[in-house]
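Review the following:
>
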Amino acid sequence: MKGTALLINKDHSVTVLENVEHHVYEKLVSQEDSKNIKCTINNKEVQFNPFSKVVWYEDKIDWAYGY
């Protein structure tokens, strides 16, 4: 199942990962308290800055709606 993962960063900014598998979200959740966050997306290893929370949205976000 694919969806959108929203990473709420420590600096209160948001990182949006669209069209990712649910297991990527689960991997990110397991690293919420880490300082060295890595996961594989589309066969590429990606590193993220520390974040406070990860939120899963089971569909694409309609950005034209006015978010």
In short: The two ends are 24 Å apart (CA to CA).
